[in-house]
Write a structure and sequence with these properties.
two-stranded antiparallel sheet, two-stranded antiparallel ribbon, alpha+beta, 75 residues, 45% helix, binds zinc ion
Amino acid sequence: MGRLILIVLVVLLVLWLLRRALAAGKRQDAPSESGAPDLVSCAHCGVNLPRSEARSAGGRHFCSEEHWRLGPRED
Ligand SMILES: [Zn+2]
């Protein structure tokens, strides 16, 4: 009887570890709804770059320190 309980506990532990592994894998595969990186365009030159690499100021994004200093291009 003790052995049966042990087997049940091992099966539950394996299932729990599998669910955890699947949940972690899903989170890594889907940073956004499409799986593509979150791109923003530079307010000065219009180049697209990942949001994490962009400089942001006043709700606008810039590709570099230089373009951030120059500000949005007006045309
Ligand atoms: Zn730029």
